[in-house]
Amino acid sequence: MTTAATFEELLSAVRGPAGARTVIVTGAGVSLASGIPTFRGPDPGAVWANDVTEKGTRAYFKREPHESWLWYLKRFELARGAKPNDAHRALVAWEQWQARHQRGFLLVTQNVDTLHEQAGSRALVKVHGSLDQARCTRLHCKQGPPRGTVPMAEVDFGPLFADPSPETVPRCSLCKSKLRPHVLWFDELYSEHDSYQFDHVLRSAKQATLVVFIGTSFSVGVTDAVLMRAMLADAHIYSIDPSGVSHSPKIRVVAAQAELVLPPLVAALSD
């Protein structure tokens, strides 16, 4: 059974019937053209090869909180200088087209960069957190889980940079517990923080008529969860992936880079 899909086939699915409900899931591949390395991709800067499964964990933060912060800040600094590419902008236009036609739309990103927001996406869930936020490590602190965060811009990293040690890790201004990046670590659950909105993502996937995965490796829990519910809903399922690899017979793959295929796709939508 072939899983390859054409541009025209995807366009027809996007136009769909009146009342169609779309869920889009983006991964690191959508930000690669903006200069942000992926985790598992073939690009030379892919982070996966740099022992991310050890360092991207709560266990590592507990052992070496200062080293954990320095590792994340290095990656965050690269992402902060990035700008949205044509894929991000096209997704904004897609969302606006859906709204004009009173159709459901949800963009779920695994990325912690802020490129979707910078581009103008509004119907957005950042299911793995965000690089522009930190949070307290103490449960139920106003600046900690399950709801609180702290703007990263308000965190003082001066002592940490001057003398990296567990003692110089930034502290919560309210309870003096350690602050941590507001990201979902590999040894954590989506229920760790309300802002991940995992239940909302699952409900939307169950109600979707079209699900499109863009630039994701299908190696994290949210992709499996969305895919399973989309299949149960008998939704049309597509992936935009230059590798052309399908991870399920149910997924139709458009073998193209997102920043090249999304702008003409959205431009072809007619009012």
UniProtKB/TrEMBL annotation:
Record-linked Gene3D superfamilies: SIR2/SIRT2 'Small Domain (3.30.1600.10), TPP-binding domain (3.40.50.1220)
UniProt keyword annotations, A-Z: Metal-binding, NAD, Transferase, Zinc
GO molecular function: histone deacetylase activity, NAD-dependent; metal ion binding; NAD+ binding
Keyword Metal-binding: yes
Residue stretches making up the Deacetylase sirtuin-type domain: 1-271
Cross-referenced PROSITE patterns: SIRTUIN
Species for this entry: Pyxidicoccus fallax
Active-site residues per Swiss-Prot or TrEMBL entry: H128 (proton acceptor)
Cross-referenced SUPFAM superfamilies: DHS-like NAD/FAD-binding domain
Residues binding Zn(2+), per UniProt: C136, C141, C172, C175
Pfam families: SIR2
Name of the protein described by the UniProt record: protein acetyllysine N-acetyltransferase
Domain of life: Bacteria
Taxonomic lineage from the root: Bacteria, Pseudomonadati, Myxococcota, Myxococcia, Myxococcales
E.C. number: 2.3.1.286
